[in-house]
Amino acid sequence: MDDDYDNIPNSPAIRYYNMLDDDFIGHDKHTECSQFYSISVKDMDAYKLCMSFIGNLENYDKLNFSIKHNVYKCHYLNLWAYDRLSKIQGIDKTTMMSSLLKHWGKYEYKDECSGGDFVYYNTNNADYIKTKRIYDYALNYDKFQLLYKQNNNIPCTKKQDEYIRKILSLIQEVRTECEGTQSFKHYCVAWANIQKIYSKDELLNLECKSVEEEDPPREDFDGPKGWQGEEPADYNNYCKGQNIKEKLQKNLFPVYLFRKMDPHQFTGLGSMARNLLRTKGINGINSQEELTHELLENPYDSNAHPDLTETYIGYQAI
């Protein structure tokens, strides 16, 4: 099984984890994190994790995934903390974990959200991987279901198709082990928890109706440059209250990508452009500017629209 199959660029799960990296970074907490500070930019990951970690603990009540998923935000905070810690090189991870847990015990929400899962994952990495993938599937489900199940004229990329097939295979494996038994393994609990958000039938019946024949170029697969590394909160705030001209001037969603490149190249945008041209091309979408305006007119905002009544790039659900 490909260890990287669930790394889907711009998926909701990745965007939410990036939010935990940056939204509440504790800029005034240098003293608490000074032991991890390095003069080398290459060795700053531990320091940045410490600062983000403390910021998230201080602002736990403000961590916002969505109405559906906020009930499990403590699980996501633990998963994020271990995910980031496990990727840091050149430090003693046990020492850093001990330091982070000391901070965890100092904050207001320590009784509501403990670091017990964080400790467990450090000694049960295989369980951690399964648990994270199941909880992340819950974060990703609405977007994939809306794009590729309800609207089956939109093809999946090969990467997305691989993700859906392999995550469903994992869930079937977990079901076989966990259902009908009283198991306290974290991935068994995760499977039970996400069924409180979505029905079992919904979770097990997601599929790609069609798959693109070839993967798009790497740059296009990641989306327009303005999206790469972009945080959900910043993107949502940017979208609100600004007209198209201001958006283009700020270069957060560079229109030159549409002018210089065929919009069919883009994974999400290509499909949306094809649909727009089929339905509206005869009636007046005769230029790149008009097509760009159509695609930008109603940008996706996962927090503002938790029920996902519209898709990721201005697509109105039917």
From TrEMBL:
Pfam families: Plasmodium_Vir. InterPro entries: Plasmodium_Vir. This is PIR protein. It comes from Plasmodium ovale (malaria parasite P. ovale). The lineage of its organism: Eukaryota, Sar, Alveolata, Apicomplexa, Aconoidasida.
